[in-house]
Amino acid sequence: MHDAGLLRSGLEALVSRAPDMSVRTADWSSALTSVRAAPADVCVVDMEAAGDPALQDLARVQRREALQGGVLVLAAAHRPGVLRGALDAGTLGFMDRQATPERLLAGIREVGRGKRFVDDSLALAFLRASEMPLTPRELSVLSVAAEGASIAEIANRLSLSGGTVRNYMSAITRKTGARNRVDAIRISQGAGWL
Fold first, then answer.
1. Among 129, 53, 34, which residue's Cα sits nearest to residue 44?
2. pTM
3. What pLDDT was estimated at residue 184?
4. Using CB atoms within 10 A as the burial measure, which of 34, 49, 102, 170 is most buried?
5. What is the structure's pLDDT at 55?
């Protein structure tokens, strides 16, 4: 993604100017290898660039990888489902993608000290996220379904069986009060969960 590379370059330039910080950058696909090779105090992850399936990877990173401080995610306030998934994954820091550079540096410093940091502009999104009935796994299934994937394609992409995907879709339909899969996607997108 062009905008992901541009954002990564901008973040690198910003952080490298801070006298108390050094920076390494990597796209999401190589970030895990990078963190294993050289432990990081804070890993800043743009959830829009990483994509929704990255939430499971994010949970794994925070449980098993060499993060001395933690993860700070950049997320959009209109997507409380992403915030909920990152929170459930054990993320310490949450920054609005529209935040000022100074605010971002403050968030990185707090997470680096092992403290929770939530950008003020995400407060309402967190309230909406707390009302969301779907689990992170259900969100990942619904996210792939929203791309038009069949049950078999969803199962293949998420390493699940077809029956498990059907069970998730039934639960999603029930929890959202939808009539069918398309309605569940529409409701979830309208609520900002997807």
1. 34
2. 0.65
3. 94
4. 49
5. 56
